[in-house]
Amino acid sequence: MTTNTILLLLLSLVIAGGLSYFQYFFKAKNKSNVIWFLAFLRFLAIFGLLVLLINPIMTKNTLEITKTPLAIAVDNSSSIAVLKSDKKASELYQKLISNPALKEKFEIQSYQFDADFKPSDKFDFKGKQTNLDEVAKNLKSINKNLIFPTVIITDGNQTTGNDYVYRFDPVNKVYPLVVGDTTTFLDFKINQLNVNKYAFHKNKFPVEVFLQYSGNKNAIADFTIKQGNTVVAKEKVSFSGSKKTATLNLLLPADKVGLQVFKASISSSSKEKNSYNNIKNFAVEVIDQKSTIAIVSSINHPDIAALKRSIEINVQRKVILVKPNDINQLQEVSVLVLYQPNTAFKAIFDNNKLVATNTFIITGASTDFNFLNQQQKSLVFNMSNQREDYLAEFQSQFNLFAIDNIGFENFPPLQNLFGTITTNPGVSVLLSSKIRNVSTNAPLLAFAENQGKRTAFLLGENSWKWRLQSHIDNQSFEKYDVFIDKIIQYLASTTSRKSLVVTHESFYNSGEAIVINAQYFNKNYEFDEKARLTITVTNAETKQAKNYDLLKGNNSFSVNLDGLSTGKYNFIVKELNTNTSYSSHFEILDFDIEKQFVNPDVLKLKQLALQTNGKAFFENQADDLIHELLENKEYKSIEKNVSTKTPLIDWIWLLILIAVLLTTEWFVRKYNGLL
Q1: 336 neighbors 361 (Cβ within 8 angstroms)
Q2: Burial of 196 by CB count in 10 Å (0-12 exposed, 13-18 middle, 19+ buried)?
Q3: Which residues contact 579 (CB under 8 A, 6 or more apart)?
Q4: Contact, 501 vs 544, CB < 8 A?
Q5: Rg (CA), the chain
Q6: pLDDT at residue number 523
Q7: Which stretches of 476-558 are DSSP H helices?
Q8: How many other CB atoms are there within 10 angstroms of residue 182's CB atom?
């Protein structure tokens, strides 16, 4: 309390005393006890009102003890139950949280994790995936800027997410509590199977298989691939105490068109503890047509090679490189990519007016824009001879097809001639251009459709730098290649625009996300945010049907069908306002990744403990873990002096007291006839 406040309070005492004296004692003949009592009431009431006007700040100091957090995360995935350690994991958790010494020293935080991470003190061990990376990421956020220990009750077998060993903060010690039998059992396992989603009819498609063996003796196993009851591939594989793995590369025939389901298996005469990981189902979509994309250019440029690689990532696409005078090679082409066209392309443009092949026009410093103005009417170019760098700006309202912003704003600029570009009606802009962060309102990537013929325009060269930047940002070319594939897919399609567009896979593995996306467009082919989309999913065998609503996202609707059992399903997506519908099918293959393990991953959990200066413990060493936590002097409670400042005007009881004093004075005066 300041000196000024104290002086004001003293002055208030004087004023309250003076007013009370003036009213009850000045020139008063009778100074009875009642008068003294009334004067006292008036003094307290006036003084209380003056104190409220002064409103002094009251400071209260309290000591607060802050304990170090102890995060206990329990693996809630089904692999714990498969290893028959679910009861043991629950017992270990209860032993930790009920320990009085731990509760006194730490603020215990309980969590569970499988595919997700959340606070919980109850566990059912039914999670379909294990993601220890989520534990690291969330604990960093929850206990930010704190030094704290983490106990993870787990088998260490991660099925999704980044490698968790180096994801935890090395400053905070991690103590893995390993559950599961660490005894080495004889086991054959299909560790991984790689196969393309698509194959071409009457061709052979490759299958790469990685096999793993646990055991110390020499063993021979039979590996087979069946389609139905037909064996399509078979090999004998030898293992030993020194040879624990084997890689097989097989070629399977694509004899039938459509979705083909296969079963890979490994077996031997020896008895195994876990035979579930001996089998892996996979599927391939066999197609009988391959689209050809022609890149036509009269110059050499890195863009052409980068574009060819991106397009051919999709096995349905084949790219041919053509000179402008090789018009005979363009008869069976699905899409024409015209790279920096000039007058040498006249024959191609004239021929394409007759065959109406969809085109992808890419411009640059070598483009003849006067010639290009004569050959198409979607864009009007008024260009100078000066070169300019153009940055990209994503237009989220674009709705010709579903596309995500893959970081276009961070991509290097494309180079084109400086000038003005005018768009005519019917042009949709996906990327607009900027010059040094100043928007030009001109297109950088645009699409047009005229009398059923589709054209895409990329107005700048050096897009190979985009692909490289995307790889730097994502450690993969995948996002950029998908972006190019969607452009080619839009141009390769000869079907008319549909109001309801649904995207889905032909097959899914059980346990993975089953997401179906849909877009609904109005008559002007604008994305309709008010559409009401539902999906009916029917099991082809049991005929059991389930209905779901599709939820609106960013320029699309989606539904997550997690929880469906393995089998074949038919589905219908319907827009309720117009009864527009789309029907198709998919298949869920039997594969539970959480059933693939026979032992905990002790080695990786020890690496995690070493990385964070912690220590790994086994399920029979819980007491040692508790002792380690209690004896560690890094984790101490912190005593803080918490100062709380409260304005006196916030004291509601003082207002009530003043009201009571004034009311009491009035009643006493009334009773004694002094009013």
Answers
A1: no
A2: exposed
A3: none
A4: no
A5: 38
A6: 64
A7: 478-492
A8: 12
Residue with tokens 């905070």: 172
Give, for 419, the enclosing helix (H) or strand (E). Answer: strand 414-423
Token duo for residue 503? 């995207």
CA distance 174 to 151: 6
Assigned token pair, 323: 């000179």
Helix H, strand E, coil C: the string for 79-130 is HHHHCCCHHHHHHHHHHHHCCHHHHHHEEEEEEEECCCEEECCCCCCCECCC
Calculated CA dihedral for residues 82, 83, 86, 90, nearest 10 degrees:
-150
C-alpha dist (Å) from residue 312 to 196, 280, 476, 624: 13, 28, 16, 57
pLDDT of residue 242: 85
Q: Among all chains, which residue has been given the structure tokens 């050096």?
A: 462
Cβ distance 125 to 78 under 8 Å?
A: yes
Below-50 pLDDT ranges, the chain = none
Strand partners, 374: none
> In this structure, which amino acid lies at residue 363?
T
Using CA atoms, how far apart are residues 322 and 328, in angstroms rounded to an integer?
10
Question: How far is the C-alpha of 418 from the C-alpha of 85, rounded, in Å?
Answer: 68
Residue 329: predicted pLDDT: 75
Alpha-carbon distance 106 to 234, whole Å? 58
Distances in Å between the Cα of 196 and the Cα atoms of 206, 255, 261, 296 are 8, 16, 13, 29
- DSSP letters spanning 208-221: EEEEEEE-SS-EEE
For 281-339, the pLDDT digits (tens) are 888 888 766 788 999 999 999 999 999 999 988 877 889 999 998 888 787 888 999 99
Residue 606: φ, ψ to 5°? -70, -35
Cα diameter, the chain:
129
Q: What percent helix, strand, coil does the chain show, rounded to 5?
A: 30, 40, 35
Q: 341-366 burial by CB neighbour count: b if 16+ within 10 A, else e? A: bbeebeebbeebeeeebbbbbbbbee
Residues 6+ away with beta carbon under 8 Å from 266: 188, 189, 190, 211, 221, 222, 223, 224, 237, 278
Helix (H, G, I), strand (E, B) or coil at 257: coil
Nearest to 148 by CA among 641, 610, 632: 632
**Residue 149 and residue 629: Cα distance in Å, rounded?**
8
